[in-house]
Specification:
- The structure is a single chain.
- With 86 residues, the chain is of the alpha+beta class.
- The chain has 2 helices and 3 strands; from the N terminus they run ββαβα.
- The two termini are 16 Å apart.
């Protein structure tokens, strides 16, 4: 997810849990430090929606409170364009 030209940003990896008794998603920041929590949240959301490993790169500017809603809207738009309603 990138505003402007496509560039690699903060990278997060999320893995959905295959265990029935311990449902959940595990995530970690892989690269970068700007908005790492937000990148993890987006990766977790994508992993939860797809039930697969998700890798999300987030490159946006601004404070976390402003970036969060914009990044979530961008992820939703990407999923809609791919034909997968979130």
């Amino acid at each position: 997810i990138s505003e402007g030209r496509l560039s690699l940003g903060t990278l997060a990896l999320a893995v959905p849990s295959p265990l029935q008794e311990r449902p959940g998603i595990t995530s970690t920041g892989v690269l970068g430090e700007r908005h790492v929590l937000l990148a993890r949240v987006l990766a977790e959301r994508l992993a939860g929606l797809k039930g697969k490993i998700a890798l999300v790169s987030l490159r946006v500017h601004g404070p976390e409170a402003q970036v969060g809603p914009r990044a979530l809207a961008m992820l939703k738009k990407i999923l809609e364009e791919a034909g997968h309603e979130p």
